[in-house]
Structure formats: structure tokens, C-alpha cells
Amino acid sequence: MSMLAAMGQVANFAIGIAANPFAFLGLVPVFAAALAFMRYLAVDPEAHPVNTRHVRSEYDFIVIGGGSAGAVVASRLSEIANWTVLLVEAGGDENEISDIPSLSGYTQMSSMDWMYQTSPPGESPYCLAMIGDRCNWPRVKYVLGGSSVLNAMIYVRGNKLDYDYWEQQGNPGWSYKNVLPYFLKSEDNRNPYLAKTPYHSTGGYLSVQESPWRTPLSIAFLQAGRELGYEVRDCNGEKQTGFMLSQGTIRRGSRCSTAKAFLRPVRNRQNLHIAMYAQATKVMIHSKTKRAYGIKMVRNNRPQMVRARREVILSAGAIGSPQILMLSGVGPKEHLESLKIPVLSDLKVGYNLQDHVGLGGFTFIVDDPITFTKKRYQTMQVAMEYIIREKGPMTSLGGVEGLAFVNTKYAPRSGQWPDIQFHFAPSSVNSDAEQVRKVTGLRDSIFNTVYKPLKDAETWTILPLLLRPRSTGRIKLKSRDPSVYPDINPNYFTHKEDIQTLTEGIRIALNVSASKAFQRFKSRPHKIPFPGCRQFAFDTDEYWECSIRHFTFTIYHPTSTCKMGPASDPDAVVDARLRVYGIGNLRVVDASIMPTIVSGNTNAPTIMIGEKASDMIKEDWGVSVR
Fold this sequence. Notes:
alpha+beta, 3 domains, seven-stranded mixed beta sheet
């Protein structure tokens, strides 16, 4: 579409709105998309990646999955001019809706989403407020950039001690000292007060900055942190414990996915091919030599096989990578044999599933009209501020304005390894009821009982997340058919300590609301209980456990299903250089290799894993990276 045609469409749209201004409220996402499309053409200096029409029969490297790690690996490996790289991605390119930070929720449970659900719980119940007692697990299906296109763009690296612990578990080269250079390598920080510190950098592919817009409650959040004895600091800096304004992967007010950051600038490299709408179904492994030599994929409804001269690299995520490995004969022997899949390497693939989980819908009420409501901010003025000035409410990082890392009484006594993370948002479940119910799967009866009474209220929320859960789950195959998504059992709350730690985190959040900073707005908790929790008094341990088991909320951080560890670790799937045990020329490079989940959002660490793995691959094939 030409710029003139795009402008014409937007003009026609605006004329229609002028004739019927009330129609605008339901069509802001459409209008925003039209504006964003104009903006792509007007100010984005990088054209979109090219979907290669003809896939060669052979490449040096094949990367499966163009998400947070895969886009990085494909970009970095193609820096070697005499290497050929094929990036296989099940979806197409990003769209204009996904580019708008405040509309991140609209991409979940859409055609871009695998729409995974967890299996029903066993003896330890969870998601009791959801339809079928099953949690929705949004994971990007059809888009280059993967989960970096679906997420809330929060840039958090985790805690120094996370990485030191990885190395202590027998993974040399993964200490914080070793991984920090790879965070810095990617980053182009656009907040000067952060960029000048030793913990941030400029000039990398990945743009990082605070949102240029926020509500007054964001400042109250920081002030409340000080009242509770916490420092307001850069939690990606020297110390993590504290309160901060959210940092995000945005550029000029729009989302900066890994596709935008790492693939668009190198779109003209002749040695990098990107095959979109291509679903990898199996890694081809020689039964005698146990070496990976290619992949099978389906593109345009046609099966294809592509050979790899050097390596196959799995970057399909913590669900997709174990699924493809098991379909290829790499996984638990008994499980694969039950599906009549020949076993090539008996490994604990799919085990050790970890996730950040917390209490969803934790709502507070204020009197002043200062919260982020759909009615207030879906206006023509807001849309124009976004397109003309690259500012305003549409730049909000999925609505998350503040973060905090706090210590419960169960945290290590040093205070430097917090066990709860807060995501603060000046809105709540009632702010966009239809979308929230769609994304979470919340039962209508429960929504109508608990949240519908707040329809016209000014509300805000804290999502308290358990940073280092003791409970772990498992991914298993349901079928040999690659199109059948796997069985996902997160196994939440099988360890009582997880409930106890979350309960203490909830009480710290109550103290945030009770602070002087929030009492200026007469903040108070919403106390209508879930129907299944009415027998418990508010703020008792029993009340909070019941609430957690009802509105169980994941922030979509599955990790650790292809665990990195030494050969002596019976649960390890890959070694410290991410090579799959027992199989040559095959690596896993994504969040699934984390031996233990990081203490914070997982997108930035996954990008780091892609950066570090790229250097290791180069070194292993004789290329100097220093």
C-alpha cells in the first residue's frame, strides 16, 4: 500500500467517525492500526524481513523458531559471510496492532496465539475460577519475533545470584560476570540517566527505555516503596531489590521486538533466508551416528526436508522445543515408546517446567479519576498524540507502569535475592472486562459476582509473582502428530512454601495500598471474595490460599524444560554449550535451557541466551569472537 492510499483510508475513517463519534470507542484498535501503518511507512528506517520464496535444499545452519532467541541467533550467525543460515518460522510478520504497546493484550488469544491451555489440576488445585479449571497459556504462534511480539515488553534481566547459581550447578561460563556482557551487547538504552551507568549500554540492536507516558499513580507507587523501606533504583543495575519505573523494549513509542531489532537491519544479507509460514515438525537424526542432519517442515501445506551441513538449532521455546525434540526421538524413553517413537537419546526432555505464577485480579479502588480506563483513553486525541508525537497512553508497556522486587520472610537473609516481584498497573480486571475474560478464561459467573460491581470504579492492581517456585511441572506429548499441542502440566502449588511466600507477597502489596502515598487517593482493597472463598475471613492465610488457587495467574514465563547441566546431572538435556546430550550437531537455544528460572521477566534473559549461544557456536566452528 502506498503512503497516499494509507492516508486516504485514514481520512475516510476519520470522516466516518466525525459523523458518528460514539462509534469510535469500539474501533480505536482499528484506527490505531491504520495510524501505525502510516507510521511504519513514514518513519521506520528499516523495511520488514523478506519471506524467502525458494528454500534451498541445504544450509550450514538451520534455526527453528524466529522468537526472542531464534531471531538473535539467525542474525548473529549470518554475520559470517560464508555461512548460510535458514530461519524457519511458523508465522508471518508483525502487524500494526502488535506494534502499539498499550494494545499488547489484543494479540493474546488471537490468530497469532497457539492458545495453549494447561491440563486440569490433580491433587493441588489451581485456576479454579477459570473455565474447566484450566489456565490459558498464550504463546505466539504465527509471527516473526515470537513472544517478543505478544508480551508486555518489560525489560528485566533477573538477579545476579540467578546466574551465579547456574554456574554453581555445573554450568561454567554462565555466572553473572559472564552473561552481563551479552546483555550489554544487545542493548541500545535511550534513557540517558541509565545509559551512562556500567550496567547499560547504547548502540546495540535492541532499544530499551521507559515509557514516555504514565499516570500519577506511578509516582505514588515509587513513594510507597520508599515508605516501606525500599530504595527506588534501577533494578537491572547493581542491586535488584527495590522499586522502579518499568523499562521496556520500545523504540519511538512502539514495540521493539526481536524481529524488528535483529532481523530488519540485516534483511539484505544474501546468506540469511527466512522461511515464514513454515512449521518445523521434526529434526532429522541419523539412527547410527546420532547426528542431526536436517529438518522436516510443512510450508504451504507441502512437506519439505532441508539439510544442515553444520548444525540444527532449536529455538522454539519452552513448549515448542521439547515437543520437537520428543517427536524427533529425543526424550524420556518410556514416554516415547508409549507413542511408538524410536528413542535416539533417553533424556529428561519436558521435565523441570518452571513458571512465574501469582494472584490475578488483585484489585484496589481509589476515588480520583486518574487510572487507565478504556473509556478515558480510547479517544481521537490520544490516538493522534501517539501518531504525531510518539507519546501518550498508547506507549504504555502493556499497562505495567512500575515494578518492584521485595523480600518476604522466606527470602534469603541477605536481602539481595528477593522472592516476590510486583507488576503495578493503574487499571484492573474491570477496565477492559471483555478482553480480560477472553485472555484469562475467567468464568462469566465469577466475573459478574466479583468484578462487575466495579464497572464504573477507578481501580488499580498489583500482580504479585512468585520468583523462584519450588513446584515444577512437565510437558508431554499427546500424540505423534506435530499439529496436536502437547500436554502442559505446570503442577502449581504442590509445595506449600509457594503458597506461603505468595501470601506474604500479597500482604506487602496491601501495605503499598495502605501507604501515605496511596492514601492521598483513598486507596482500599476490593474485598468481594470468590464464591468458593466466602467461608474465610479477609486477609487470613486460608483466604489468600483460596484466592490464589482460584485466580491463578501466569505472566507467561515458562522455562527450563530442556535443562542445562553437567553430564553428571540425570535431569540435564543440554550441556553448558547448549549441545543436546547424545546427539551431534544439535543445540537448544531458548528459555527452555535455564536450569532454574530467573528472578524476573524472561524476555531479556532469553535474548541474552541467544547472544551468548551465537558466540559459542562461532567458537566451536573456529571463528574468533574476541
